[in-house]
Amino acid sequence: MILGIKQLKKQLLLITVMLVGFALQASPAQASSPINKQFGEPVSMGAPIQQIAIFESAYGQEDGRDVMYTTVNGKPAMLNVIDLADNKLLRTFPLPDADSSWAKAVAEDGTLYIAGQSKVYRYSSQTKELDDLGVAIPGETSIWGLITDEQGNLYGGTYPNAKVFKFDPRTETFTDYGTMVEGQGYVRSIAYADGIVYAGIGTVGHIVKLNPVTGEKEELPIRDIPGVSSLPFVYGLDARGDYLFAYLNGNGTTALIIYDMARGVWLDEVYNGYGGLDVSPEHEGKVYFVQNRKVQAFDMTTQQVTDTGLAYGTGFRSSGWVRFPNDPELPGETLVTIQFGGKAALFNFESGIQKMLPAVAEGQPTLIQALEKGPDGKIYTSGMTSALGGAFDPVTRTHSTYPMGQAESIGSLGNDLYFGIYPKAEIRKLDTTKPIQTDPSKPNPNPVSLFYMGEDQDRPYVQTSGDGKVYFGTIPYYGELGGALVAYDPASNTFDVHRQVVHNQSIVGLAYRDGKVYGSTSIRGGLGIDPTESEAKMFVWDAVSGVKLSEFTPDIPGAVKAPIMISGLTFDQDGLLWAAADGILFAVDPETQEVVKSKVIYPGVTDYGMWRPIHLRWGQDGLLYTDLYGKLTVLDPKTMEHEALGINTALFTLGNDGNIYYAQETRMYMIPVSDVGEEEDTQLPTTEATVSPEQPDGQEGWHVSPVTVTLSAYDEGSGIASTEYSWDGGQTWTSYAGSPLQVNESGRYELTYRSIDKAGNEEAAKSIQWRLDHEGPFIDWKSAVPEVISSSDDLEIGFELRDEWSGVASNTASLTLDGEPINSDSSSIPLFRLPLGQHTLTIRASDVAGNESVHDITFTIENSFESLEKLVQRFAEQGWIDNHGIANSLATKAAKGNVSSFIDQVEAQAGKHISTEAAAYLIQAATALL
Fold it and tell me: N or C of the chain: less Cβ packing under 10 Å?
């Protein structure tokens, strides 16, 4: 018998928690406030949105197994290494200074390169280590494509100066080849073939052929596309054999065109409705891609495209050919690609099978992109490149999520929330009085998509409402100037788009009053194009007639120069229109359009802002709260006194409780706001943890049933602001939602917990520990036992006992055969000793905690002339038959099926040349064959 005990460390929880951090920040001002307010210490409210968000993938091998490399967006972005055959996450690595990755490349030696913002990272499939290679080209902020050549050199394309670089792994140096096309911002895609680097350009489409040895550049003219006057982004480039596949995306175009590099000509066909970022690698003379939600195969010999019969509702986000040796439905090689949410899509064209593997990548807290208070008092958030939105309830201190794209703005009308979604300027609505409903087969979906604005608009960054309508201000598409004012009427479900309200400027400020919409602008347009205007404007729009009434440039006292962005529009109780620009707050008389109040808060600031507006919020106390110049600031509009709170943020709102809620990267914080003079709270809160069952219900101090922990907090002063708990010794914290924490999985646990009151007093962290083992030892039967086994064979006994937590209890393993004990030290059981038919071998073992495991092995013993012959030979070898002539005679009779003669001879020789015991077994076996 083989007996092994292995201890592992892992923690698996049935609860879903959001990671919560408590960041160190500059302390806000205290009771000496010039505006008679007291601001407490920031309190962490956790990460509102945590999800898997993936742009692409790459494929390689580690230790002889196929793996997928993919990066989950977050702060930081996390590289995930996944064993595809087992669909198992092998390891993760944070990418310092990166929150996303758009490109990877695997060199011929298995080295993986990852692009993260402006940096390149290198991962070794041999040592399993990650290196930070640094910034590829100083001044470039994004890397959009990576490819390697035969020598292992790495090439990449960048933004905002449309450059190509090379990294030489032998010299560990970067080479800057310069801008590929003057006036363009993106090398959005890159490919390599036969010593030439191909660069796909945007925002206006070009393809540049770069000789990396000489640095010479030559443009490859792109063929005409029917119905397309201006070529959009060359969003994807893939070199496969003699062909270059180019994906054109933008201005309503999603087309794949193919260039024959050997003949120097573009093929005739244009594949409109192309989906995804890449075509597949070549496999058995074919390349696969998605067109109109169907997987197509391009034959590289005939140049013909055929439908594979497999559908796919999205597109390939990079792909690779992988073997699944344990899945008979996936013979040979299977095409694998990743989805945005982390699922792996599998396509086997030999069997015609399509499968989906569950996501195993680790979710990350998502960068907060928008933050607003909803009509129900909850704080709603949107994440960058997110498929989820977050809702935080300040009363219960709980987070929830709902399906939502990347919202650039959040606003409300009545009980409805409106989300301005990037890309394509989509508007979605969430009814805060109804439950979330995403099942398309059921009525009352919530949230819902209302419309796409069109008119080359891409990012709805501001919104306001009035007289039953919602108004949006937008940023145009890449390479475009001229945003739009969009008026939506929920009653009729109609909308009007008014582009170029202010020539070549985007709308980043909106306010409504008395039938008029007041707006303000940024001179910036979409990415990839320089502004043509030099100063931001304000305008007045007649909401009834849909006509611009006026446009003006405010004369702002104290401004060093005319601002490039004016935003944050809001009316005060006296009807003055307040706005923000650079480091200045000012109020305009809407009748005279003159600035009547202003305050330079942050002197010397110029050219601040691009799209994200400065926010102005009126508190119930009559004060004006703002994130002017990215700094939380409070202004008394009567005295024009102000106070800087020492907090850097570009997103904040005011809760119904009067407190400030703001975002920093992936996390939300709250600043308690109170009046000066209120009694100062210096008493620490108290938190108690109750564990059920109170005492271990297993042996040796182990729990064997699920453990429930309830946290109870108390504070005599300002009250509890939040209670938090941590599973990693206080490195990361999760907001306690009030529901008991139930731990069902085995492990050694330490729960750390604390509370923070509304005055910012933080309790010293406490902790409790317990051990849970709810499963008996794992019994691993090492021998292969067929369902039917010959009576002449032995049943081999070999098993291993493992218990990952409390350990296998000594001397507890027991074996029974058909309910009768047998020696657990036996290595085999001769089956000729057992009657023919079905038998059950049972193994029992216990762990230290007292859990028992039982493993049954059922088999059937059958007899045959062959097994009878083998039994004679076995007895002869054991000496139970001591005469070779008799043994040969019996073996011959068994082989020929002469059972009666066989029995007669055995009976005649029993006790003579055949032992009595052996004779009995032989007669029993032979009789069964009569």
Answer: C
**Of 626, 623, 607, 624, whose CA–CA distance to 615 is shortest?**
626
The β-bridge relationship of strands 788-790 and 852-862 is parallel
CATH superfamily of 778-862: Immunoglobulins (2.60.40.10)
State how beta strands 494-499 and 484-489 pair: antiparallel
Residue 875 has pLDDT above 80, yes or no: yes
At 484, the pLDDT band (50, 70, 90 cuts) reads very high
Which letter does DSSP use for residue 361 in this model?
S
Give the residue extent of every domain in the chain: 367-665, 683-772, 778-862, 865-927
Question: How many C-beta atoms surround the C-beta of residue 904 within 10 A?
Answer: 12
Q: What is the 8-class DSSP label of residue 276?
A: B
- The closest of 629, 613, 665, 652 to 475, measured between CA atoms, is 613
Give the H or E element holding residue 917: helix 916-927
The structure tokens 């699920």 sit at 706
- What type of residue sits at position 346? L
Residue for token pair 């990166």: 98
The tokens describing 506, both together, are 């985007």
Is the distance from CB of 82 to CB of 70 less than 8 angstroms? yes
Residue of higher predicted confidence among 442 and 19: 442
Tokens 């005649």 belong to: 908
CATH of domain 367-665: 2.130.10.10
Distances (CA, A) of 264 to 189, 267, 270, 298, 720: 20, 10, 17, 18, 72
What pLDDT, on a 0 to 100 scale, did the predictor assign at position 29? 37
User: What pLDDT shows up at residue 292?
Assistant: 94
* Of 709, 752, 710, the residue nearest 729 (C-alpha): 752
Q: How far apart are CA 300 and CA 501, in angstroms?
A: 51
- Please say whether the beta carbons of 454 and 497 come within 8 A: yes
For 766, other C-beta atoms within 10 Å of its C-beta total 14
CA gap 511, 31 in Å, rounded: 34
C-alpha 158/C-alpha 623 separation (Å) is: 45
- Cβ within 8 Å of residue 177, ≥6 positions away: 163, 164, 165, 166, 210, 212, 215, 217
Assign 875 to helix, strand or coil.
Answer: helix
Pairing mode of beta strands 794-796, 778-781: unpaired
Closest CA to 693 of 649, 660, 740: 740
DSSP 8-class letter at 28: P
Confidence band for 683, pLDDT divided at 50, 70 and 90 = confident
- Could you report the per-residue pLDDT of 831-869, keeping only the tens digit for each? 888 888 899 988 898 999 999 989 888 899 888 899 899
For Cα atoms 437, 52, 370, give the angle at the middle one, nearest 5 degrees.
Answer: 70
Q: Which CATH number fits domain 683-772: 2.60.40.10, 3.30.70.270, 2.30.30.100, 3.40.50.2300?
A: 2.60.40.10
Judge if 683-772 and 778-862 fold alike in CATH terms.
Answer: yes
| Helix/strand/coil percent split, the chain, to 5 | 5, 50, 45
Query: Are the C-beta atoms of residues 863 and 871 closer than 8 Å to each other?
Result: no
Label residue 824 by pLDDT band (50, 70, 90): low
Q: Could you write out the DSSP letters of every residue in 440-466?
A: TTSSS-BSEEEEE--TTEEEEEEEEEE
* Run of H or E residues at 876: helix 865-878
Q: What's the pLDDT at 572?
A: 97
State the pLDDT at residue 825: 64
Half-sphere exposure of residue 116: CA atoms within 13 angstroms, side-chain side: 30
- pLDDT tens-digit series, residues 533-555: 999 999 999 999 999 999 999 99
CB burial readout 728-743, b (16+ within 10 A) else e: eeeebbbbbbeeebeb
Residue 101 has phi, psi (to 5 degrees) of -145, 130
Query: Does residue 235 contact residue 247 with C-beta atoms inside 8 Å?
Result: yes
Q: Tell me the two tokens of residue 819.
A: 């309910």
